[in-house]
């Protein structure tokens, strides 16, 4: 029977890898998620029916309750709230790994210092990912302030908390004192550090943070897999941890920032207000004139950002694009890798609205096309289209790869107000000679543009 269980775990690991590979492409991502789900179901069933398992009623009850909650949440949560949901699920994964560590360390039956050390490391990482992800969820859900929350000597205090958690972990590994006492102190400090680590990170850095917590959750599961000698947990945790780490590095590179700067830089705090100020006034355009510009253009590039997600304007934008395509206008969508609040946020929203994948282009693909665009329509994007990133060495976003929207013949920016973006600086694009501002809610503006196009 044990050999059958091990074979099932091996098949589970294979299906996880297959699913992850298919998630690399938008065309096969849905199928990849299905395969990963099947793998998880197989792993759960094999574990439940493995010989020697106790408390089967409690396990099945918990599994059924979790499945029902996840099913309802998956059906009811709108696509615009997907970043919060992913942050929450990342936290659940880390919390599960930490709970496994707590139980096994409490039992004291891991059989050796090496396995105990692996359980402690997995528990530390899992607890940090759990509490940190919950704070990320609260920020994204606007249950708490989204801007960085800082206080004097914050990094020193955070470092002391992390060091204290490590000391408690080492005490458990070498058996310095009764395990329950050190275990309680260890997990309390680890959870506290996860909270403290997330507080100074603002909403604009959430794509990097979510990727990082995804990586930490995978690593925690992998470490616990080694401690428990469970092949499925080892492979699944390692694969998720590696994928999450690669994604974290790519997201940080897309912002031209280091991981340490994201974690400890408190980027986007309100103190940045006043940097790179400008006295020029933006030029505005009304809806009818904007519709005429779009209708008689040969090529229109659409740039979407977090403001589009807030306004839930993706369906109206798709309708607007359809109107332009019907007139023979070339329409393409330009996607910045860190636009939104999670990796691929814009791709997910536009896909939900039925925008064909062939019309979505990433930064490297679309930037050479901006000089040939008659109109670039910017909806809810700010820092990722700020030309200051290219030439202003004093700007906090200097060096960040941006979409070269300003090189278009005409730029129409749809924006709810005159507020600054996440970086807290003025956007040079908004006062450029070829830019016209169209103030209003992105969904309402897109709807009015559609109606105006129909009248032309």
Please outline the helices and strands:
Layout: H1 2-22, H2 29-48, H3 56-76, H4 82-107, H5 113-140, H6 154-173, H7 179-198, H8 206-228, H9 231-254, H10 259-264, H11 287-295, E1 299-304, H12 306-311, H13 314-326, E2 330-335, H14 345-352, E3 360-362, H15 363-366, E4 375-379, H16 388-391, E5 410-415, E6 435-439, H17 442-455
Parallel strand pairs: 1-2, 1-4, 2-3, 4-5, 5-6
Helix pairs in contact: 1-2, 1-9, 4-5, 4-7, 4-8, 5-6, 5-7, 5-8, 6-7, 8-9, 11-17, 13-17
Give short descriptive properties of this protein.
456 residues, alpha/beta, 6-stranded parallel beta sheet, 17 helices, 6 strands
Report the major sheet: 6 strands, parallel
Q: Which sequence of strands runs across the widest sheet?
A: 3-2-1-4-5-6
| Count of helical stretches | 17
Determine the structural class based on helices, strands and strand pairing. alpha/beta
Report the mean per-residue pLDDT as an integer: 86
N→C terminal distance: 73 Å
Uncertain stretches: 271-276
Extended strand count: 6
Strand residues, percent:
5-15%
| SSE string | HHHHHHHHHHHEHHEHEHEHEEH
């Amino acid at each position: 029977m044990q050999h059958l269980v091990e074979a099932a775990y091996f098949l589970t690991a294979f299906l996880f890898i297959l699913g992850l590979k298919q998630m690399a492409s938008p065309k096969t991502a849905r199928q990849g998620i299905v395969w990963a789900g099947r793998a998880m179901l197989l792993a759960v069933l094999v574990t439940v029916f493995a010989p020697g398992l106790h408390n089967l009623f409690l396990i099945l009850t918990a599994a059924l309750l979790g499945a029902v909650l996840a099913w309802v949440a998956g059906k009811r949560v709108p696509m615009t709230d997907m970043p919060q949901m992913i942050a929450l699920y990342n936290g659940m994964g880390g919390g599960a790994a930490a709970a496994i560590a707590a139980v096994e360390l409490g039992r004291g039956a891991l059989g050796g210092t090496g396995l105990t050390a692996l359980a402690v490391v997995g528990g530390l990482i899992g607890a940090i990912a759990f509490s940190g992800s919950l704070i990320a969820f609260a920020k994204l859900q606007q249950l708490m302030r989204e801007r960085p929350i800082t206080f004097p000597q914050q990094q020193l205090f955070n470092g002391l908390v992390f060091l204290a958690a490590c000391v408690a972990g080492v005490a458990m590994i070498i058996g310095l004192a009764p395990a329950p006492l050190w275990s309680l102190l260890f997990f309390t400090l680890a959870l506290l550090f996860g909270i403290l680590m997330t507080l100074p990170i603002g909403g604009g850095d959430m794509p990097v943070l979510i990727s990082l917590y995804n990586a930490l959750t995978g690593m925690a599961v992998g470490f616990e897999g080694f401690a428990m000698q469970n092949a499925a947990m080892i492979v699944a945790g390692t694969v998720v941890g590696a994928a999450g780490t690669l994604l974290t590095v790519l997201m940080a590179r897309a912002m031209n920032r280091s991981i340490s700067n994201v974690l400890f830089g408190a980027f986007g705090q309100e103190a940045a207000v006043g940097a790179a100020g400008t006295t020029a006034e933006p030029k505005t355009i009304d809806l009818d004139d904007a519709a005429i510009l779009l209708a008689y253009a040969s090529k229109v590039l659409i740039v979407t950002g977090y403001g589009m997600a807030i306004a839930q304007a993706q369906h109206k934008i798709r309708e607007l694009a359809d109107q332009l395509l019907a007139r023979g206008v070339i329409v393409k969508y330009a996607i910045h890798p860190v636009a939104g609040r999670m990796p691929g946020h814009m791709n997910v929203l536009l896909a939900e609205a039925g925008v064909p994948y062939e019309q979505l282009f990433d930064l490297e693909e679309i930037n050479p096309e901006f000089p040939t665009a008659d109109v670039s329509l910017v909806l809810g994007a700010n820092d990722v289209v700020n030309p200051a990133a290219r030439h202003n060495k004093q700007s906090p976003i200097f060096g960040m790869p941006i979409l070269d929207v300003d090189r278009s013949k005409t730029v129409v920016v749809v924006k709810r107000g005159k507020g600054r973006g996440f970086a807290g600086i003025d956007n040079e694009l908004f006062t450029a000679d070829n830019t016209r501002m169209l103030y209003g809610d992105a969904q309402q503006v897109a709807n009015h543009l559609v109606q105006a196009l129909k009248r032309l």
